[in-house]
Amino acid sequence: GSKSFRAGDYGIAILRFRQVADDDPSIVRAFFLQAQACIAVGSYQEAAELLQQGLRRQPAWLQSGYRPKAELYGNDEARWTQHVKRLEQAQRQQPKNADYLFLLGYVAWFDGDRAAAVGYFQRFRAIAADPQWADLFLKAAVK
Predict the structure, then answer these.
(1) Would you tell me the crossing angle of helices 77-93 and 98-110 to the nearest 10 degrees?
(2) Residue range 2-47, pLDDT digits in tens
(3) Contact between 44 and 99 (Cβ < 8 Å)
(4) Cα R_g (the chain), whole angstroms
(5) How far is residue 80's CA from residue 122's CA, in Å, rounded to a whole number?
(6) Where are the alpha helices (DSSP H) in the chain?
(7) Would you say the pTM of this structure is higher than 0.90?
(8) What local confidence, expressed as pLDDT, does residue 65 receive?
(9) Distance between terminal CA atoms of the chain?
(10) What CA–CA distance (Å, rounded) separates 10 from 1?
């Protein structure tokens, strides 16, 4: 899956990561990797659901040191930036879409920008039907 992702074959990456998660749901990394591939193709609702599934299984993952940018994009800063900019554009077009705010918080959090992540999670919390996902990150941010 990671090899496919790095090659820009995001659909294959999604499939491979899904196979791992289906085979052994305790491997939460597969949910996060699959979510990142979904972000890459613009499947934002699916990405948010996958992240929440992973966090439901292992809430401490947010303190894992996971860095999707380094792991999946390597030195390709342009692709990372393109995917983040597309997500930001989607959020600007639908500012009340909680999934977009959650994903932007996730991207910022795992890219090491905790201050930006907190802002996104606070905005997510204000409009989300279920704010528990924001609360998880916001609680970790004050530690």
Answers:
(1) 150
(2) 999 999 999 999 999 999 999 999 999 999 999 999 999 999 999 9
(3) yes
(4) 14
(5) 24
(6) 2-6, 10-23, 29-41, 44-57, 68, 77-93, 98-110, 114-127, 132-141
(7) yes
(8) 86
(9) 33
(10) 8
Per the listing, tokens 């948010």 go with: 48
11-14: long-range contacts, CB 8 A cutoff, minimum separation 24? 11/41, 13/37, 13/40, 14/38, 14/41
103-140: pLDDT as tens digits: 999 999 999 999 999 999 999 999 999 999 999 999 99
Closest CA to 7 of 73, 80, 100, 78: 73
pLDDT, tens digit, 9 for 90 and up, residues 56-99: 999 998 888 889 999 999 879 999 999 999 999 999 999 999 99
